[in-house]
Amino acid sequence: MITALAGGVGAARFLTGLIQFVEQEDLTVVVNTGDDVELFGLHVSPDVDIVTYTLAGIVNDVVGWGVRGDSFGCLGMLKRFGEVDWFNLGDRDFAASILRTKLLRAGFSLSQVSAKISSDLGLKVKILPMTDGKFSTYVRTSEGVVHFEEYLVKRAAQDEVLGVNFVGMDMVRPAVGVVESILSSERVILCPSNPIVSIGAILSVPGIRESLRETAARKVAISPIIAGAPVKGPAAKLLHGLGVEVSAFGVAKLYADFLDVFVIDSLDVAEKGRIEQLGLQVVVADTLMKDLPTKAALAKVVLDA
Ligand code: GDP
Ligand code: CA
């Protein structure tokens, strides 16, 4: 059994490589739900959907989210009605959110809904939201406090970050199966995801970090930072805003209390010694995922580490 902790795009790309080697039935993916947002009265789960669509082979891999070839008729009409126009949701994407909202209203949990959607899309991987409770990531910026998706999409991550609020953190529990999966796995993988708002959000759910410290699993993380910069997304602004060094070392420090192995990019070989001094084993590899072979090669490194 393998458990992976995942955000959206970076994680989904890595997991595509991982399932080349690991039976889907043997993989549980615990996904960040801090980005979940209510739009048009619907419960949208961006990271869960990205991971699900990607593993199901239907993601729009040009942008990394949404369904390949999707149309935007519904959103276009909503815009004419003067509705929120900053979030991109394709018609097929809407369908997933409509179903999710319908089932949540009928009393099903977010994990039950995620399981149904992923199995209907043909997946055998277990996709678990980090929590079934209400948890929302807000970013404190020079312009005010905004939901993470609003910061990322509407404001294009332009504002200076002063801090991050995990609203609901103290009230939620890990979804059923999350802690159990971490405790019973041989390996726990922290995907190359945003260390603050994706992996950081998952680790902030009471009980998850403790289970990582407790489990006998080998815990391996891949640095999302290569040569002092994220491959994509606002990780640098968030790390900087929280006073964390924007480097593989800075990320390693965030996980050092429970991690065994940190996989860094060949470009960061100079950081190896510093990270080892945190008490971690360091593996140096090519971590830029360009295509299926590079994704698979990285997965192999992580499985052998
Ligand atoms: P989001 O939820 O869509 O923002 O995606 P994630 O939480 O998965 O975070 C994106 C992170 O993935 C960024 O920090 C990127 O640097 C990282 N990432 C994306 N592609 C790659 C890659 O090819 N290699 C590595 N090492 N990191 C990557
Ligand atoms: Ca995300």
Structure description:
With 305 residues, the protein is of the alpha/beta class. The chain folds into two domains: 2-134 and 174-304, CofD-like domains (Rossmann fold); 137-170, no CATH class. 37% of the residues lie in helices and 20% in strands. It has helices spanning 9-18, 46-55, 73-80, 91-105, 110-120, 148-154, 178-184, 199-204, 208-214, 235-241, 248-255, 272-276, 292-304; strands spanning 2-6, 27-31, 37-39, 42-44, 126-129, 136-141, 144-147, 161-167, 187-190, 218-222, 225-226, 229-230, 261-265, 281-285. Strands 5-2-1-9-10-13-14 form a seven-stranded parallel beta sheet, with helices on both faces. Helix 1 (9-18) packs across helix 13, helix 4 crosses helix 5 (110-120) and helix 7 (178-184) packs parallel to helix 9. 46% of the residues are buried. Bound molecules: guanosine-5'-diphosphate and calcium ion (CA). Residues 7-11, 13, 47, 192-194, 198, 222-224, 226, 230-233, 235, 287-289 line the site of guanosine-5'-diphosphate.
Written as H for each helix and E for each strand, in order along the chain, the element string is EHEEEHHHHEEEHEHEHHEEEHHEHEH
Q: In CATH, what is the class of the largest domain?
A: Alpha Beta
**In percent terms, what proportion of residues is strand?**
15-25%
By DSSP (H or I, 4+ residues per run), the number of helices equals: 13
CATH superfamily of the largest domain: CofD-like domains
Structural classification = alpha/beta
What's the quaternary structure here?
single chain
| Cofactors, ions, other ligands | guanosine-5'-diphosphate, calcium ion
For the termini, the CA-CA separation is 16 Å
How would a textbook summarize the main sheet? 7 strands, parallel
